[in-house]
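Consider the following assembly input.
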Amino acid sequence: MALVTADWSPMGDAFYRKTELYAMSWSSKFDISNHLVAAAPYGGPLALMQDISRHEKVSASVRPKVSIFTASGNEICSFLWKSGRVIHLAWSLAEDLLFVQDDGQVLTYDIFGSYKGTCTLGNEVKTTKAAEARTFSCLSHTGLAVMTSALRFMVTTNLSKHRAMNYPEPPALCAPPSCWAACYQDRRAILIVASAHDLFLLEPGNVTLVTPPGLSVPVNCYLDASVSFNGKLLALYTDSGHIWMGHTTLKEKIGEFETRNPMRPVQLEWCDNVDGSVPAVVAMWDEMLLVAGPKRDLQIQYPLDSPSYLVPEMDGVRVLNITAHDFLHRVPDSCVEVFRIGSMAPGALLLEASKEYEAGSQKADEYLREIREKSGLEHAVEQCITTAAYEYEPTTQKALLRAASFGKCFLQAYRPENFVEMCRTLRLLNALRDYTVGLPLSYTQLQQLTVTVLVDRLVQRRMFPLAIRVCELLHLPERQGRSRVLEHWACYKVMTMKAEDEERLPKLIHERLGDTTGISYEEVAARATDMGRTELAVRLLDYEARAEKQVPLLMRLKRWELALLKAIESGDTDLVYMVIVDLKGVLNQTDFYFTLRKYPVARNLQLKDLESQISALNDAATEFSKAKNDFAAKATEEQFRLLRQQKQHSQKLGLDLLHLSLHATILKLLRSGHVAIAERFVRDHRLPDRRWWWLKVEALAYLGDWQELEKFSKSKKSPIGYQPFVDACLKHGNRFEARKYIHKLPPEQKVKGCLATGELEMAIDTASERKSEDDLALILSRLPSSIEPRVNDKLEALRNQLGRR
Amino acid sequence: MARPCPAASLPDFSILNHNHRDQLIHLLELLPGRKDLFIDPALMPLLDRITGSSVLKKHEVDKFFKLDGKHIPGGCEQRFFLIRPEESMVKIVADSLNADKACSFRRKCKIIFTPRKLFCCDTILELEGVYGDVSCEEWECDLVPVYDDVLSMEIPAFFRDFFLEGNQCWLYTVAKSLCKLQSIYGTFGKVYGIGRSAKMVNELMEAFSGDFEDGTNGKGNNWSLFLIDRDVDFVTPLCSQVTFQGLLDDVFTIKCGSVEFGSEVTGSEKNVKINLGSGDKVFAEICDQHFSNVFGFLSSKAKTLQASYDKRHGMDIRNMKDFVANELRMLKQQHRFLSLYIGACEVIMKKKMKGDLKEQLKVEHALFEGTDTKRCISYIEECINRQCPLPEVLRLLCLLSVTEGGLLPNDLRNLKNHLLQSYGTEQLLTLANLRRAGLLADQQPLETMGKLVADKTVGKAVGKLTDAFTALQRKSHFRALSKKINLVPVNDEEFDLKSPSDMAYVFGGAYSPLSCRMIEQVLEKNGWTGLEDVARLLNGSEFSHSKCDVSNVTSSHLVLVFFLGGCSFSEIAALRFLGRSKGYRFVVGTTALTNSPRLLEALMDA
């Protein structure tokens, strides 16, 4: 282990270091400065494109070469650019390469240089030509801002979905702005545009003129502007050589640095710090790299021997040139504590102790004692583990982990999860940093990126075995890990398949994939469909367990019957509906019903679909029912007759009888005194006698025609008894009339009737006649609060009479 | 292994509520900024149960509207529609969108379907020409804890859709929700079931089992599931309910565990809405009681309450302070509830006892025992002649049919004629529906029956015919069942309603709910062995299987009984009683809480 602090440079209290990630293995020598360069963050791939616009003399017919490399400089692919003039090259968050052309077209290519799609920024850009473009990240999408040659700004926050929005023009902008930048805040994109000494903040529908607070010298021109990786900080380079650092809202200043260099830097980037301590800005000129802090004397200079390119990362800046790929970042606090010369931090002591122990020296014990005196052993172990995370040299990592493992032997009840986790993570990081893979992720970046996304990126690079190994190493759940990788592998296989493999492939895929949970054969089959391999897709779909995925694709493949069968098997009627509706449009009617007949479930659903029509065509339905259902047929016939009669009499009598039931019709007739007509209805419809009595009693009581009611009661013996008479009288409030019918009631109902009409005495008499205890109970329960003494006596007598027995 | 204590504790179902709420809020956040929320009127109680309006207001919901077909112009630029996936509702939404379009007003709209979006909804949106103007989301609000031990899906449409129209789309939802339940509270150690839909749900659950991860780390397996189809037992929901809660439901309609009392109960202008599942002790004690006990209980409660109030006399200052700070509020609260319950009791008495509930009960009891069918028929006829409410008449008619195993053709024709004359010919459709659902049947003359049996053995007669036949066969066996598993208690002495010894108390001691009795028997025998003939009488398709070793199963005392097609409060009361007396703990799951009017109205078609 060499001296770790050798490459550290102090800046105030902090240290910065430039760690070499790779010695670049570019296949050919070239000059970065006359290329358009794009490098994806999180150790992503690099793209270079010859910049023809800089060589005026080259004719327009020359096709520039585009090359894509891994971060270690291995060429992934290269091709000749055949489309229009490219003004900007960038990687999207999903690691797709975006070519922004001056006609407003944005072409998307994947990492292997194959074309994925085009989207356009609209007609205005097309006619006026785009001059400059900036990409920025907004949540999980990539946003694009374009300045046209007419100095208008167009912004979209999600390239693939949203249309480009016209931003207002800053006033008095006649020459191209000296610099501008884009960032995303509070759900909208903001542009910062500098026109000489004015600075404008552009929002949708709003322009504000702003002055950065706290600038010490007046500004004639802003030369460069740069937004930090997280979009929260802004750096401005002025013509006086000052770098102003502050928030993108331009309301707060963090600091200012004086470079005394009025030259515009080639590139200006933030060297962000994740933990939010003092930030720094990196400015690059042709032969010098300057790290500037927010105060005057905080600076580090690095000489540059060849043209370079800066790639901002969340925790530092990658410096890329023809020979090397370095990572410039602030040394994390825990590293400083452990490795700083003369450090007495527990971690540093533990590392020392472990070294001595390995050397077989008793000094190890002394160091250990010292740590334990400060009772900082647990802290020391933690410190060694965290520090290991930030070191790039495996030997250093090992030394630190060994120290941690040594220290934890002396701890009781120490939970080893952190240690184990770190060992795994470092193993992963080291594997990724290997130059064949070329993913120089830092620990912080990995935490931010998450392992699932990492697996996706590996899959995207077609490193399937490595991806699976990663999943296994980190014990990812099947669904997130292994099966997802396998699925992509299968898709890839399908896409690159040769014709003769068609027989073999489904089997091969199934062998490899098996019934692992969470495998989606549908995805694979969809890929096969896109490739036009129907047969293969159907076969693959057979392995798919989830019907809701299987069925739509089968329909796309025009395998209707199979789709219907699978839909029915799934038990999800919604799917069945879907197939039926589609099927109806495709097949002619006979075939359609013929197919349906084979599947009763489907037929049931189809019937339901028709139901609404059936009820509407009531008449047709009755014809249908006539065939097998006499009762219904007769009923409908009668209904027709009833309707006709109702209509006839409605007009004649001026009564609205339509759509009433027979019962209601007759009742209405009786109530309005049309007895004769009512009787005709009764005859015509052969109304049962009992119903007629019910109706008449109700109607007469309603009319208050008590005489007629009495006459009616005497016309013959009532088929419905006399209780209804009592009830009807009471309902219409004539207690007196009700009494007339009580004596006609059968004895068991008499008491109740008496009580209802208020004939307490009669009730008691009846009860005593009947000698019924139930009746007595009934009387007692309905006893009014005050009763005459005579009645009371009678009641007593009844009680005695019944009690005696 | 250690046996769990006899009364296994209930799982905490409020987690479900939290999940539903979080999901809804997530959906609402999809459109940031202020928005209006339009709600399917049928979903109002459900939403109330899951989250209060204040929570939604916090998530920038500006106003709430009932979605009733009236177009409301203006309002926020963003609208949410929360609806069931029903044709009529989607049409209303589409109309509203079109109205906006007509006055060329652009706004962002989202439709939230609960519990899932159906394909037909898309089709309707397409037909109405608004498919592109709106985006759809699904809110998987399936099982909602209505009480501590009752989970309901609140989909009353299930009954009609499945049992009448043979539409199986809800089965999918039921199976999904049960699987979700398993992933939260542990796998069912044992699954019993009876009925066609029960069987299908079980099959679907097995098919889904791979899709759900077990979130309980295998500590599950300590509860069982009992799936039961509503058409296995039509008798119970058709009976007049006489428990307090059953009557509350019949008279005031309990919606998603809360009930609204009008001025007749509260004695003031304002309507009062109370949540019955909120854990009020008094309600917990009376809800399952026979109605005749409730008054006595409430008055004694009132007395103790008075006594607690009176305690404050003769208190010194410090105690008084204590009293006011702690007890008084609680007493006030109790007082409020108590007066509401008493008010409700009065209204129930007025409405139910005024008529001839006694007569009605007598008729029903006669039906259970199978004595004096003639009188029942003439009673029904009288009801029809008196123009009693149609559901009431249909209820008695259906009850007669299911207990008797169909009516004699002549009787049936007469009653039908009466019915049509009284309530209009359009009820013909209703009658046909009842027949299709198996609630109303002809008594088949013997020889045709024999022929059908012959057909069946040949195995050619498929579809509706056998269905109707087997349905009939089952129904005609109510009497036999009643003897076999003792549904009608022997009536030699007065049934003690105060401290009942049998679950028949929920129907005044005249009848033990068939469904609950069957569950009791199956759990006792740990499966259907020994009950084959009972199952045969119930139309078969019974099943039971366990997912873990048997010793584990016998100790599972927590049972989820899931009614497909709805269950009544009487059944819940009976199951609670059964749990107390046999040492089980029942959780009732259902597609909706139902009673006889709702059950029959679902089948009415006019």
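The two ends of chain A are 117 Å apart (CA to CA). Ask yourself how this observation constrains the way the partners meet.
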